[in-house]
Amino acid sequence: MRSNHKNTLLKVVILGDGGVGKSCLMNRFVSNQFDEHSFHTIGVEFLNKDIDINGDTYTLQIWDTAGQERFKTLRTPFYRGSDICMLTYAINDKSSFKNLQMWKNEFLYYADIKENNQFPFIVIGNKSDITSEREVSQLELETWCNENGITSSIETSAKNASNVQEAFILAVEHWLRIEKRADKNETVYNDTVDLTKKQGEKSSCCIGSSDEN
Amino acid sequence: MYELLRGLEMHRITEKEKCDKCFLQRSNALRRRKKAFVRSGSVKRINSVRKNPKKHQEKTKKNILVKEKNEDFRYIQLETKKQKQHKNPLIIPNKSKYATIPWILRWKFRRVHPTCDIRIQQVDGGFFEKFGSLFREQVELTETKEKLEKEKCAKLAAEVIPSKLDYEQEENEILPTVESDSENEGSMVSSDSDLEENKDKNDLIFTALNIEELYAEILYEILHNVGCDVSYEIGQTTLFSYAQDAFKISNDKHNHLLDMAERKEPPELLLNVEIIEAKDLRSKDSNGMSDPFVTLYLNSNNTHRYNTSVKQTTLNPTWEEHFALPIADQNSEDMLILEVWDFDPAETVKEKFGKLFEVKGVKGMRKLVKEIALTATNGQHENELIGIAKIPLKTVPASGMTMWYSLDKKNKVSRQGVLKVRVSFSSEKNNQVAEQELRHMLRIILLHELETSKVAPYWWCGMFSPQANCLLTQHIAQSGLTPTEVSVCQYCVFALIHQSHALSFALFSKLLAGIVKPLQNNQICEDDVKLFWNATKKLLPSCFSIIRKIRKKTSNEKATMKQVTEVLKILNYILQLDLPPNTDLFPLNIYKWKTYTGDGPNCDIFGTINDAVVQGASDWMNYILENNNSRDESDVGRLTYYIQLIQLIKTDIQKSIEYYDKLFQETVNFQYAKSLYIFYQAKVSTLCEPEVTNICKNLKRLTFNGKTSTLMTTEDSKEPLSAGTSLFELYLAVQRFVVLGTGLCPADCDNFHIKNFHQWFHGGVAQWLDIAVYKALQRIEKAVELDKLTQVDNTVKYSSSAVDTLSIFYQVKVFWQQLNWPDVESSYTFIAKIIDDICRCSVFYADQMSAKVDGMGDHENVYEKKFEVTNEWCLAINNIDYVRETLEPFTQDLGMTDIIAKITDLKSPVDAQRCQHTLDNVIANAIDTVRNKIIELLEIVVNKMAPSMKRLLIEGAELCNQDSNSIDRLMMYVDNNLSTLHRELNEENFNRTLSIVWEMLGATLEEIIQCNLDKRRPPSFFDNLHKTLNLMLGSFKSPNDCSNCDALSRTERLLKINGLETNDLIHEVHLEMARNFAKEKESSYGEISVKVKFEGSAIKVEVMNARNLIAMDSNGSCDSFVRIHVLPEHKFSAIDKPKTKTHNKTQFPLYDEAFVINITHEQKAIKDGLILFSVKDKDLLGYNNQYIGEAFLPFSEIPETNKPLSSLPQVHLQLGRPTSLSSDCIRALEHRQGDKLAKEFLKKYKQRMGS
Ligand SMILES: Nc1nc2c(ncn2[C@@H]2O[C@H](COP(=O)(O)OP(=O)(O)OP(=O)(O)O)[C@@H](O)[C@H]2O)c(=O)[nH]1
Ligand SMILES: [Mg+2]
């Protein structure tokens, strides 16, 4: 049973061309395993994992999608209601990088998101372990992100586990930043926060009265 | 409205079953109500028919117009009339059927078994009910639906009929002869010759004939009527006038021709006799047998005799021999004499018979027979007469007769046996001419008959009027035509007339029955065979036209059936015949619709049947397609149109199965329905595939955020909603169409293009699932809104919206099952999506539920704000839990195992495992997420209770010792609320609540403690608080569990500590140190060894030595001594604190000193007493001894014994120093700043730490 302190649930979707290593990233992150001969994903895969950031626990519900074109109609229904979107390419595959734009558009359309610069996208350049075959430079990555108003990007390797944990943390932090900004604007009350406030008021009032006695 | 509500409640009260049963009930209710839905639908449709009488009128008008224009189409208009008659009764019974059920009653029927609240359905207009339940009630539904469709079909067919005119006209153009026929009726030029493709020698005879000659011939025949049956019934004059009418001859002409006929020699008639057989002849020979033969002659000419052959040794001979006896004059008294003889062979005769095989030609034969007969009658032999039969010629009818005659013998009464004879008249006319004449007569007479009779040609069944019959029989008799020849003539003439006057097909099949055998046996002359095939070629187009237009007569199934039956019989007969070589049975200029592509003549009857069937279906479909004027060009409009089209097609196929398929199969061994289906499936595919694929590709996605709770049916979402809905309807329609095909053609259906129809819809599935969620969310919102938060019934602890939500889930499931999506990979993904969606719905439900109860139970008056746990709150929690519980079983019903097994086969076990894993995870996540929601709600409840509980605690602490009813009141509050929770929630959730309460209490208390410590509350305050807490915990039903809660036990300890007097608190510090030191294995300060025991009221201590003492002096050594304290100090205040001598400059001092400390019995009984060994380094001056370390020995570890100390084992104690300033006790002491004792202790404590 989950502890009585409920975690914040975050829905994460991982998008990107078939074979860039989305499934491997997820498996590395969730179960710290790597499969050299992983199969193409059928439709979607799902895993969840808790992650602690600044003392708070977040439960990431990770939807790993199939990148192959023939699965398009199968994966897009899962975009709706996402909190975080990871756009993935492989640094040794230029075309997967070129396709990022397509992935981003597909996501925005099917997730039904209106203000796209408000949404926490994170760009991931996977397979950073095989630098010898690198086709996409870090500069190109930065340029693309700047052009698209995306502030978070990272190069990872599911194979040697570098930056995988960091990528997900980066994503959640990005989400937090945007969430906080939204909070300020809309003053959305979180239940717990709200109640503590009331408690505070009441207790002081009680104490006040008892003091007088 | 109120009524409705009460009905609902009633239902809920009766619903005593648990979840599954409840499901069952619901699905039953659903089924029932579905019926009602369909019914109301059909009523509507009927109404619409009635509302549109204008349309019908117009149609009728059109038909009448047609009638005026073209007589030939009489029957069409007749049919329309019939159809109309047929139609009305169809509407009336239906109408009356529904009219008898009062509307109110039906409405009530609806109310008794509501599935989910009707008002919930109203949210989306019964979205799920429309499709969701189709699956289970398919059988029931299709029945009703079919009925509707049939009705619709009939309506459509009625519309098709006018267009039939076009076909007919078109065909008439193809056969120009028909028209010329009717134009030139007067001058009666043989139209046969026009039709004949290759002129042969027959033509000469045909052209020689003209109508006047034929007429004269008929008059002549009337004058010389033969047979017994004629003149009695119909007088000559009647016949003359009939013939004149039929041939349209003027009086002058008639008289002239009659005169000519009268002057003509009487015809030379022949009496045809066939001696068939005899039976039971009397025996004449000694062997009991006879050797019979027959001699026959006319009375008027008894020398002219004819004999049959002799049949040896038999009494039942069969001859079947033919004779033609010329009738000399019109002697009506003449008689045919038949004599049966027993042949007795005489040499001479035998010789003569021997010659029989030598003669050739009829003449010679006759001569010979005559001779034999002469010998026989001369009595020059010993032949013996068996018997005689006499037939007066006037008893013979013109058409001839076959009879058994008994044989007489002079003077003998006994029977001589019986003889079977066929007698008929004939002339010596040329057969070809006679047949030709017959054909013309037949045609003229039949046309005349059809013209004068009131019967439509179609109903004419071959019965001529008596006059016509008489004329024809006379001609046949006087020409001596055989029945087969007559049949062929009739067949040819009828086929010709059929071109302009549709005759009953039964006529042809009846004739064929008689012709087929002779044809097969080559018994028909070459010319007639040729005529037969030409006629057949003429007949066949209209046969196939019947097949092609099988749909046009839907109003009169029986007539159509009859017609088709006869047509098929005809085809079957034709199929049995060998076609003459090079016959082009189906010339392409007539059969324009044929698909035949081969070179040369085409005689493929089966191929033509198939083409006709397909063409008929195709015409029908094109008609529908072309006449869809009011076509709505929107996606929804087009989809709806296709749905209707498929329904129509389905009905057509079903009808074909019902009516025609068996007929075709049995008569011509042709699979009618299958052939239709193959055509339709291709057609449906070509029509729908591009459209559907395109619509699916361009579907606008539904705009709704799955997370927010406000669902708006904006104009934006309306269009994709209805497009998706229609698309799904079409999917189901095609699906059912495919199922139909699987049943019809189990062997071929895999090759049908339509088999993979689901691929067209691929892009739509996601949309449907989205719609399903959208609708489900809407319904949930409504269900929560309508929920009155009362138990569904006494046995369950949830309320209506939970049940409604489950039934919504159930609908989603049925929706999925109905989809029956065949593709494995996508099925897997969709299941994952559905589970995730259901999870989303559950979360949404939880949010709605908690929003609904928010604010309930809050009471506010001038004195206080208070929250009471209400049943509503508990129901809300139970509701969510109830929904959560059903998630797992729900997911199992989605067919996961099946899909995973298929993935194993299709892909690999590894893939299957990954998919399984994902589904499991999604389910687990869903359940977990909903559980999270429950906890969230529980927290809200507890947090709402928190202020009151906090107040109780504080007041308790302030007023504990005074009688206060405010405490009682607050105790009651806690007690009431907790027992409500205990009563209403299940154990799991109650325990969850308790642990949340404890956590909350812990946090609250800590806050109170902190707050009051700051205010320097006396220890008694905290003590009271502690007592109050215990009081409160006692009111929890299972207080034993509270130890699980860390926060609470920690605060409880805090309370205890802060409630202690300073002395006790100090002792608490020591106890804590004792516990901590005991845990140490090694000490950096050293170790001492002691022996301690109780003896009576004294403590005896021997300090043995110390080891590894920490170096305190600059020289790296120390000068140590040990002081012994008994603690707690304030309880042993009068007791000595002995100490050892100082041992200089050693880290391993050997003290070896024993002490006796006398204490009282009471002091000895102190449970947590401690002995403290404090080791110090003696300062040179003795003023400032340095602290090395200390060790504790609890009383509980000291043995009570009389044995000398020396016999006891040494106890080794690690030395330690106080380490922490943050312990609760120290912090409590720190808060007692006004307390001298505390202050001093803390000062020393810190010194000990720091040294
Ligand atoms: N060298 C290297 N190879 C990797 C890395 N990550 C994944 N791969 C390999 O890339 C291949 C594809 O990885 P997947 O995770 O299946 O790719 P995917 O993006 O999930 O592909 P789809 O499911 O088809 O969308 C596998 O053979 C992996 O072994 C990486 O960081 N470094
Ligand atoms: Mg993958």
Automatic annotation (TrEMBL), chain A:
Domain of life assignment: Eukaryota
Topology class, membrane: Lipid-anchor
GO cellular component: cytosol; late endosome; lysosome; phagocytic vesicle membrane; plasma membrane
Molecular function via GO: G protein activity; GTP binding
Co-factor requirement: Mg(2+)
Sorted UniProt keywords: Cell membrane, Cytoplasmic vesicle, GTP-binding, Hydrolase, Lipoprotein, Membrane, Nucleotide-binding, Phosphoprotein, Prenylation, Protein transport, Transport
EC number, as in UniProt: 3.6.5.2
Subcellular localization(s) per the UniProt record: Cell membrane; Cytoplasmic vesicle, Phagosome membrane
Xref: PROSITE patterns: RAB, RAS, RHO
Any Pfam family: Ras
SUPFAM superfamilies (UniProt xref): P-loop containing nucleoside triphosphate hydrolases (SSF52540)
Swiss-Prot/TrEMBL catalytic activity: GTP + H2O = GDP + phosphate + H(+)
First-level EC class: hydrolase
A biological process from GO: protein transport
InterPro entries (UniProt xref): P-loop_NTPase (IPR027417), Small_GTP-bd (IPR005225), Small_GTPase (IPR001806)
Family: Belongs to the small GTPase superfamily. Rab family.
UniProt name for this protein: small monomeric GTPase
Organism: Brassicogethes aeneus (Rape pollen beetle)
Automatic annotation (TrEMBL), chain B:
Any one cellular-component term (Gene Ontology): secretory vesicle
The UniProt record lists the keyword Cytoplasm: yes
Residue ranges of every copy of the MHD1 domain listed in the record: 728-849
Region (Disordered) residue spans: 174-195
PROSITE patterns per UniProt: C2, MHD1, MHD2
Keyword entries, A-Z: Cytoplasm, Endosome, Exocytosis
Database matches in InterPro entries: C2_dom (IPR000008), C2_domain_sf (IPR035892), Munc13_1 (IPR014770), Munc13_dom-2 (IPR014772), UNC-13_domain (IPR052095)
PANTHER family: PROTEIN UNC-13 HOMOLOG 4B, UNC-13-4A, ISOFORM B
Family: Belongs to the unc-13 family.
The protein's name in its UniProt record: Protein unc-13 homolog 4B
Lineage of producing organism: Eukaryota, Metazoa, Ecdysozoa, Arthropoda, Hexapoda
